[in-house]
């Protein structure tokens, strides 16, 4: 049984009409294999797409549905697909599934891969048809051993059933799919670093342009999509654009549903499929159950370690990209973390920045040198050995490593939580200097 928690306590029963990603989940947490998946309408959307729709029609339907990437960047999926070359002679093109889920406090893709592997395969099959891609790879985080085992079995099931291979469903479309496990580097979540790693190279991001849609894996047109993104595709094709857009709460600028969660010292930590536009307060109080007895909420992150901290007063924020941006951070992966009042923010940020510093590819100077420098300063502050001016240096580093100033988005994501922590909890950082001054040093 998977150890990923998908809580259903006191919740409205999941259905295909309201929970397109999770309605097929088994209560025992075991994988849904091919026979059960097909018995529950599995691969019907793929049959529709491959036998009744053209690639351009599939792309347009996904674009009209407003599906955006679920890996954290939130780029419109249909627009991304539309960047692939139209030249039919370029028949060597690839679809890559980014399953390198290494963002701390993020485990949503793991649930889908371990328990609904055929949903991902069906999503990739339809997407490959839209992109005219003849081969796909699931680039999987190496530590996800159970997910790799489950996916490989599901791929073999699909191949034996004629759902992978040549002339799929009599459509004339050929598609091969492979599971590739990486060596375990956070930077592989960046699509061009993932491509380099798949080719057997060092996992450094590439200069863009050219973009992967023009020059990707092995120099061929390539599209990279996240696991959860691809898993949305069958429901869009099967149920239509209007249905999909209506799943979100009124006022949300993002369409459909999202796997969201809460971890930390909450009463009911877990993962739920919820409509975009739900408030963080509803997620925190109604689903996660609020803080455990004896603990109070101090701060929270809305979507993984690379998003900025927010205060309890921000809990009324609607959870969609533009809604979260209004309070100064990002939706990210949608899996929130609650921090209680017993946690010192300097120690928490030191731990985070150590991770980001270690996972830097070291290609560009701001990231290679700036992140270790932030770790050094935070360690000193945590020990009470900080020097006057250290906090100001940390703020300068947050600026120097910000968006548009580094080769990829690794460093900007790394310093976003640091900048917000200093903004909201500066006295805790100042205390690391005050103790030093108190002894007359």
From TrEMBL:
Record InterPro entries: NADH-UbQ_OxRdtase_51kDa_CS, NADH-UbQ_OxRdtase_suF, Nuo51_FMN-bd, Nuo51_FMN-bd_sf, Nuop51_4Fe4S-bd, Nuop51_4Fe4S-bd_sf
Top-rank EC class of the record's enzyme: translocase
Range of residues in the leader sequence: none
NADH-ubiquinone oxidoreductase 51kDa subunit iron-sulphur binding domain: residues covered: 346-391
E.C. code: 7.1.1.-
GO molecular function: 4 iron, 4 sulfur cluster binding; FMN binding; metal ion binding; NAD binding; NADH dehydrogenase (ubiquinone) activity; quinone binding
Enzymatic reactions: a quinone + NADH + 5 H(+)(in) = a quinol + NAD(+) + 4 H(+)(out)
Record carries keyword Translocase: yes
Tagged with keyword Flavoprotein: yes
Cofactor(s), by name: FMN; [4Fe-4S] cluster
Function according to Swiss-Prot or TrEMBL: NDH-1 shuttles electrons from NADH, via FMN and iron-sulfur (Fe-S) centers, to quinones in the respiratory chain.
Family membership: Belongs to the complex I 51 kDa subunit family.
NCBIfam families documented for this protein: nuoF_fam, PRK11278.1, PRK13596.1
Protein name: NADH-quinone oxidoreductase subunit F
